[in-house]
Amino acid sequence: MRDLDLLIVDSQKNSELLEQIIKQNEFFIIKCASAVTQKYVTKSDDEWSIAVMAFAESTNKYNLNKGSFLKFSELVIRRRLIDFLREQRRHSKEIVVDPIVFDTETTEDDTENAIHNEVSKNILQKNDDSIRLEISAVNEVFQNYGFTFFDLTSCSPQAQKTKSTCAKAVNFLLSHPVMIYELRKTKLLPIKIIQKNMNVPRKLLERHRKYIIAAVEILSGEYPLLAEYLRFIREEM
């Protein structure tokens, strides 16, 4: 099994090798997911998507000092699925009511958060393989930058002013293909260039780096369903 451990390390710089490893370990992923959920998991289940992304996450975080990769990966898959199941149980016990229904003075941020919650719920609960495939595909791209799709929930801007400023940065990059090329090549957000050309505070760019990169990759890539959730950025142009 040490050969696999070495392959995992190699796959951190080789996306094609990573895809092969994932395909070769599909049974292992299903076995881990089934053990946690206490049911047989198929590729049409949400648990499969969570488990695959957790497996990919474990390949990115693995090093030889962690011992057996499969044991390490099993632990990561278990943790991510437990988090997912807890969240599902919490949602099933709650009746979620948008503040818009009761509050006649609802703020724009409240509206945006309500929409965001609805999107998140649809992504997790809707039996739609197309959006799962988009999430899985873009998650592999995000991992090259050192974060995952689910990290975005904790680093997305909330205030309208901050969202508009981030949108300016995203649109600046989208209007300069050479900047996107450099972003993908270096995996670094060109903070100084954005700051100089768009008069955006450096601290804001640093704080929302993941969100800006994610928006650029989604809006410049082949992710039409995910792009719908970012259409407000295009409206800022």
UniProtKB/TrEMBL annotation:
One of its GO terms (molecular function) is DNA binding. Keywords: Cytoplasm, DNA-binding, Sigma factor, Stress response, Transcription, Transcription regulation. GO terms for cellular component: cytoplasm. Negatively regulated by the anti-sigma-I factor RsgI. It is found in: Cytoplasm. The keyword Transcription regulation applies. InterPro entries: RNA_pol_sigma-I, RNA_pol_sigma_r2. SUPFAM superfamilies: Sigma2 domain of RNA polymerase sigma factors. GO terms for biological process: DNA-templated transcription initiation. Residues 191-210 bind DNA. Belongs to the sigma-70 factor family. SigI subfamily. This is RNA polymerase sigma factor SigI. It comes from Anaerosacchariphilus polymeriproducens.
